[in-house]
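In this section we walk through a basic example: taking a raw amino acid sequence and producing a predicted 3D structure, encoded as discrete structure tokens. The instruction is simple. Fold the sequence below.
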Amino acid sequence: QAEAEVLTQRAAAAALRNLAAGHSRNQAVIAQAGAVAPLVRLLKDGDAGTQTEAAAALGNLAGEASRGQYEKQVTIARAGAIAPLVRLLHSDDGPVRRAAAGALRMLATDNADNQVAIAQAGAIPLLVRLLGDEEPGVRGAAAAALGNLAFYHTETNEGNQVAIAEAGAVAPLVLLLLDPAAGVCEA
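The resulting token sequence is shown next.
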């Protein structure tokens, strides 16, 4: 790919990320315009900067607790986003790991089907490992993703709770309570 094309795709993903942030109407318009599949493709084919922007855009498209959130999450999951997001947790690039964990957190928010799919894709042990990441933002994003994987509306996801504990998350989460690094508790 030509450098100009890569930069253009990265800029477009960043623009969509920003347009979707906290704006449910824009999230719906972006999804209806067909952005999800190309963003998922960029998770697989883009460079680290483009992968970061694509993951962040998908996380924002999944939306905070808003009307239509479940449908947006399902659209993203059905487009095949979960597996490449889980693979990006292995990235050598900290911003990529943080954005992937953040997108998984948003896809898991109050969505039991996605919680199960994310766990089945192997995210739990990877997120537990990221609790010890050298970058504070990655540690915080991993903790937030694990929290959302363990909880559904007013109920717990007992299967994921057990899997998270058995993967060794408790001790590193307790250490994060004492982590003085800025950004760890902000995720």
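Looking at the output, two observations stand out. The longest strand covers residues 151-152. The mean pLDDT is 92. In the next section we compare this with other chains.
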